[in-house]
Design brief:
By secondary structure, the chain is mostly helical. It contains twelve helices and no strands. The longest helix is centred in the C-terminal third of the chain and has 25 residues. The protein is elongated. The chain starts with a helix and ends in a 5-residue tail after the last helix.
Length: about 240
């Protein structure tokens, strides 16, 4: 992809490819490499949805590295990048080359939630994301089923870190009430972070916290069973 984009001299495509590479580095526990690749990508593409995503990839990597200022600055830069007038042929193609406003707020919140003092900022971003997801896609937008659910789980986690148990329950309940056919197994990691927050001393002795933790465990168990049945062709 990089060789092709270089030959045709398509800078937006070069920037998008750097974004894809940065994402791979992040999920392979290489935040420094992710940050390096995202920064390089911004040399090719600074505006539009992919430019915003490059900034958000930087924010996520910076948060993993404990750089609070870098994380917040990158989130602000992402919102600024989206606000600029920008157009290229990749946006006309759509699909993975676009980023809904809801998902932009989700990715911003998912970066901020990794900061020790980022709970309140994360709640603001994630509440905005959930609200926009609930409204439905805007013109030319698409919404990811995973992001819609993960935004609610991360909002619940951020609320728990801020000591808001009832708000956390309200945020995650629509996810936990999903039928088995709509459950997404990749939510397990998000729910795992939430259970870590529920185990904190501040919630010790809380019946509501205990019940919520049991609901999460039940959800995860049923999701695993559904995935196994799908893998082996269902029961019987």
């Amino acid at each position: 992809g990089w060789a092709y984009a270089t030959i045709i001299d398509n800078r937006p495509l070069l920037g998008h490819l750097r974004l894809a590479h940065a994402d791979i580095a992040y999920w392979n526990s290489q935040p420094r490499r992710c940050l390096e690749l995202a920064t390089d990508g911004l040399g090719y593409l600074q505006g539009g949805p992919s430019g915003a995503l490059l900034h958000l990839a930087s924010a996520r990597a910076a948060a993993r590295l404990g750089d609070a200022d870098g994380t917040r600055n990158a989130v602000a830069a992402a919102h600024d990048a989206r606000g600029r007038e920008f157009q290229d042929e990749l946006l006309e193609i759509g699909g993975e080359f676009t980023l809904s406003l809801a998902s932009q707020h989700y990715f911003a919140g998912s970066a901020l939630i990794n900061l020790p003092d980022g709970a309140v900022s994360a709640v603001d971003e994630l509440q905005r994301a959930v609200g926009l997801y609930d409204e439905g896609p805007g013109p030319g937008e698409q919404h990811s089923s995973y992001c819609m659910l993960a935004a609610r789980v991360d909002l619940a986690t951020a609320n728990l870190r801020a000591g808001r148990l009832e708000a956390a329950v309200a945020a995650v309940t629509p996810v936990l009430e999903l039928t088995s056919t709509r459950k997404v197994s990749s939510l397990m990691q998000c729910l795992g972070r939430m259970r870590t927050e529920l185990a904190q001393p501040v919630f010790r002795g809380s019946v509501q916290a205990h019940d919520l933790d049991e609901e999460i465990e039940r959800f995860c168990s049923n999701t695993v069973m559904a995935a196994m049945q799908s893998l082996f062709g269902g029961p019987g």
